[in-house]
């Protein structure tokens, strides 16, 4: 099952994601999440940009597939 998510990560079309438009409510929520991520990174003294780049599908879904 984890192979599915790793394949999805490998085939991710970033350009297509950037073209997607969200409803105003969804965009507000995304902005809220980004703000909280930035606050947390400031609290733990990490660069928010670098922390975000380290997140992967394996990291996000890895906790569900412990062996």
Can you walk me through this structure?
The protein has 67 residues and is mainly alpha-helical.
Labels describing this entry:
single chain; 67 residues; mainly alpha; 5 helices; 70% helix; globular
Bulk shape: globular
Cα(first) to Cα(last) distance is 12 Å
* Number of H/I helices: 5
Q: What are the low-pLDDT stretches, counting only 5+ consecutive residues below 50?
A: none
Mean pLDDT: 81
* Range of strand content: under 5%
Largest pleated sheet: none
Topology (SSEs and partners):
Elements: H1 2-10, H2 14-19, H3 24-43, H4 48-53, H5 57-62
Brief characterization of the structure:
This protein is mainly α and 67 residues long. Helices cover 70% and strands 0% of the residues. The protein starts with a helix and ends in a 5-residue tail after the last helix.
